[in-house]
Known about the structure:
Layout (H helix, E strand, L loop, with lengths): L1 E2 L17 E4 L17 E5 H6 L4 H19 L4 H12 L1
Amino acid sequence: MVEDRPRGPARPDGRPGILLGLYHGLPYKDRGATYGSPVPDVIVIYKEPIESISSSEDEVRDRVRQVVLHEVGHYFGLTEKELRNIEREESE
């Protein structure tokens, strides 16, 4: 899903910074045999924050790709720290 901006004043994890996207759901690794998916998992991308830190349409596209991949990592159960380490390694 795409929303203009996050609802609420802060990031859900309480950390400072701009929220670009958010995964809503139960990580795949935490689902047991009785998991019945009461509601679908959702990745939300926040348009205005992404545009505010991008200087071109190409940069917006790249940033959206990065954010979606990051949130898919959360779906698979990766922590913020693990994802940051992976992102840092990719940029080197």
